[in-house]
Amino acid sequence: MSSRPRRPARPYRRPRRDPVRILAFDALRAVDERDAYANLVLPPMLARARSTGTLDARDAALATELVYGTLRRQGTYDAVLAECVDRPLREVDPPVLDVLSLGAHQLLATRIPSHAAVSATVELARCVLGDGRAKFVNAVLRRVAAHDLDGWLTRLAPPYDDDPERHLSLVHAHPRWIVAALWDALGGGREGIESLLAADNERPRVTLAARPGRSTVAELLADGRADPGRWSPYAARLAEGGEPGALDAVRDGRAGVQDEGSQLVALALANAPLTGGDTRWLDGCAGPGGKAALLAGLAAERGATLLAAEKQPHRARLVARTLAGNPGPAHTVVADGTRPAWRPGTFDRVLVDVPCTGLGALRRRPEARWRRGPEDIDRLTSVQRELLRGALRAVRPGGVVGYATCSPHLAETRLVVADVLKGLTDTGAEWVDARPLLPGVPDLGEGPDVQLWPHLHGTDAMYLALLRRTRQGAGGPFCRADMLNT
Ligand SMILES: C[S@@+](CC[C@H](N)C(=O)[O-])C[C@H]1O[C@@H](n2cnc3c(N)ncnc32)[C@H](O)[C@@H]1O
């Protein structure tokens, strides 16, 4: 009996190694496995790949876009993938899920043609997962490719009028609790919150600060790689794709990467009106030292000294490195601002830029929105209140405290300040209107505190409350918690 002729087996072909996608996958694994931050792990990986000639500048830009884009829209891609995988996503191995998300991002949010996105991702899967799991990846991505992003969102997101928060959460890839918190803080209708969420999904240009007495904006602009900042007289914005390390001033530590919102907060505290002496300044939460560097330079120009305190020793070392070379005296100490090592009433100006959820810096930390949860708020706000109380004790009567957060969440901003002011017993405090201390910056709200926004100011969503210490304790005439509608 003659048997049917067998189709000749296809010769085995080795997978094609694409260094861009392999690097993007490695970065996603580091973020996933080690809880690393993409903005910290990716630059050294790219620098190594550039120095060995594995990637050129265009490849590096593509790898960056793949990593940031995949992380930023993770929640939306998970919702799409959940429709395309025949088991709960939590049962899919994390490395497989990373490859699938990378593929979904290329299919749904880049100009890479669908067939190229699928085949490049399947080749990646063959390299990093093996041929068996690559078949699974292929099958899932073919289902993802059945619709474009709008098509998927129409299927998955409820109409805006039925459930505005869930709608915005899927369309703009923010967890629902963050949509709700940002909306509470911003107020207004659909247009404002949509602009804010869209701005959170844009990568901001890198902003530099020329450290006073060490560098100037003119120096940063000199070789045409940067434009002047919009609001801060110390700011310069690098051109798209610009490398901060390419500038001598940054390499020498005479200028640093610093969002303009962060610069405005430090400048407002430095320029707040005071009566009496003005020689002792404290940054009570200084690590890694961006605001401390600006404050130390300004303090030096005015014959004042900055003490930069930081609880974490490794972060205090970063502060000390940043302050080395300051034109005037600046000291760094490891200290807990809730149990301070200095006598009450020591300082004329105190900044507390407290640890927070970081919901104001989502543009720069693509994975942060998926890592935080509403359960973080209670823990953080109790430290925030303690740090503000400590700052009010540290400043002398007549001196000024700046309470800053890189989060607009009301529980971390106005509610902390109002709560602390209500409960003061050993000190009193009055509000200082912060708005005139950010000259030329529009849309600062009704005051006396200020809230910056990415979509309105192009900055991180920094919050600043300025308080002047008075002699009176709780209930004194200047304890004006009532100035806020909280
Ligand atoms: C938002 S960051 C400050 C950023 C800094 N001002 C800058 O511009 O570079 C908050 C810092 O406060 C520190 N920190 C947290 N709890 C603290 C405490 N109890 N006392 C002092 N520092 C604390 C954190 O380690 C972190 O470095």
Labels describing this entry:
single chain; about 475 residues; alpha/beta; N-utilizing Substance Protein B Homolog, Chain A; 4 domains; 20 helices
Please give the structural blueprint.
Blueprint: H1 19-34, H2 38-51, H3 57-72, H4 74-84, H5 94-109, H6 114-128, H7 131-144, H8 149-156, H9 164-171, H10 176-186, H11 190-200, E1 207-210, H12 217-221, E2 226-228, E3 235-238, H13 248-251, E4 255-257, H14 260-271, E5 280-283, H15 290-301, E6 305-310, H16 313-323, E7 330-334, E8 347-353, H17 368-371, H18 375-394, E9 395-405, H19 414-422, E10 428-432, E11 450-451, H20 454-457, E12 463-470
Parallel strand pairs: 5-6, 5-8, 6-7, 8-9
Antiparallel strand pairs: 1-3, 1-4, 2-3, 9-12, 10-12, 11-12
Helix pairs in contact: 1-2, 1-3, 1-5, 2-3, 3-5, 4-5, 4-7, 5-6, 5-7, 6-7, 9-10, 10-11, 14-15, 18-19
The site of S-adenosylmethionine has 22 residues, from helix 15, strand 6 and helix 18.
Low-pLDDT regions: 473-486
Beta-strand content bin: 5-15%
Shape: globular
> What helical percentage do the residues reach?
40-55%
Please tell me the CATH architecture of the largest domain by its name. 3-Layer(aba) Sandwich
Round the mean pLDDT to the nearest integer and report it. 94
Number of DSSP E strands:
12
Please indicate the count of domains. 4
Number of helices: 20
Supply Rg.
26 Å
Ends apart, CA distance between termini: 90 Å
Task: Tell me the major beta sheet.
Answer: 8 strands, mixed
User: Bound small molecules, which ones?
Assistant: S-adenosylmethionine
CATH topology of the largest domain: Rossmann fold
SS class? alpha/beta
CATH homologous superfamily caption of the largest domain: Vaccinia Virus protein VP39
Domain SAM-dependent MTase RsmB/NOP-type: 182-470
Binding site for S-adenosyl-L-methionine: 285-291, 310, 336, 353
Protein name: Transcription antitermination factor NusB
Active site: 406 (nucleophile)
